[in-house]
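cron nightly-structures :: item 1 of 1
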Amino acid sequence: MPGSDLAMIQNNDSPIPMQPTFGDHDDWWSHLLGIFGRSRPTSTRIVQHLLTRFVQSNAVFFGLLHAPTLLAVVSGKQGHARADPALYLAVLAVSACDMHQTRIADERTSDMTSANEASRQLAAKLSEMAATYLQTATAHGSALTPSMGQAASILALTQPDGSTEQNSLIRLAENVVRTLSLHEAVSSREPLLQDSEPDSPLYWSRPVTSDSPESEVKYESIVRLCWTGISHRFRKYIAKPDEDFGDVDLPDFIQEIRPMAFWQPSVLPEDLPPPFFHSQDLMRRSAHLSRLTVSLAKLEKIKEVDEAGTPPSDTLEQVRGLLRSLDDLETSFVRHRPRSDAERHNVLGRTLQMFCRMHVWVRLTIWRKYKLWNSASDARSDDGAQRLFQTTHHPTVEFWLTIVQDMIDTMQQDLDAHVVDMTALRTSAADVDALARHVICACDLVVASGEAQPIAGQVDVALIILKRMLAHASLNEAKDGLHLTDDVVQRVKLGETRRAELTVGTAAAAEQPEVTEADVGIVRDDPMPPADQLSAEPAATTEPVVEPISTEELPSQ
């Protein structure tokens, strides 16, 4: 780590502005506690629970805030005085939206459409309050501060995906970075951390420390604020993997920003376990993947085509270079890939799942736009002497398929339990939409790779459960149950069409028998009749139990 960076955090001489101080005016805090009831101690505990839940549920995409600093607001009056009302109200709005859900995907936190009525009303109220504070600050010409950018970024989670309101908030967060030149302040003090392998001492090097843990938090907060805009975009790409970049400009300054790292290196124990270094390496690899994505988006913006609609050879060569870089990242993924269910669901494992899904999205985007695909068998070591992967598909693709299988299994078990045991149906419209989108992507993978199995069989199983969900929603349309919009229904039908059109170029693949309900153990007394002949299924009679998310063992990234 360069000395200039060490001097910055030790001497705390950075021009980066500190968070605002609001003096003793904590009317916002009293108003907030009043929303949750007359008992101030009880309301304080509720706020603390919601803040804690935000930290636990958003550790992967929006580890934007330092948890101890965030929670300090409930520890005394000093915390209230230093707190930015817009930021805290935005955090509480996100957490309130999800508070009645026992499970929620990282990329779909704060989904108003999946929240129950009570959660939605509370989240909307808190969101409106946060927006009012933020608008007042900007309208009165207040100086931009990092906390404004943080508040805008968090508040964007409560807005409909792709809406004008959400895009405006993301732009505000990025405008804070640019106006205050935060990206220059960070990148000028520390050159890019290079990727390294476990056989290199650099891989196992400890992060630089300082005598001021507060300045370490301040520095890392700025780094994470610089990354927050692209985190929003990646969240969308992962949630909607069948879509492309859209009409957005990814921030170029990402190419020069150091990766996110541990919040306070000075408080780390002397002996650090290997998972700590693995998590830091994953942050570096994720930053590398982000830069590749920005490069691809830039190519797409300036892409020129000839009369036949083909990009020029130099553009195609640049895209091939991106594919080779993706292969290099595959080897890192193999090293970190979760080996157990527990590893899969801790912070490192959840981050790896997002890394994998983003990696596959980039591959599919290249295929859709340039019709370029390098098979796993084509990936070679640097000297070209041996294959990098001894598998049919790339490691990230194979792991992506296990993620899709989890989605299928969860939905099938939920509907079976609802039909047989009359338990409440937990599957939401967002869950159905997500699986339908992944079915479409799976069909793209078959066409791109030329390998039908095991993907085609998995698609068949997914379509069976999706069609059952459509039938269930149709039968219970008049009840207060699962409601699917026309867009979701059409997306499922598109998945069926894509499956029917699959061609893989071999007679053997074409003759693969279609998977049936009997093959996958669907719980049903009789063969499934047409939807208009189905009798109504039992209505849900119980509400899901809310359980707090367990704290992860690894340091929050």
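cron nightly-structures :: done
The chain has 20 helices and no strands.
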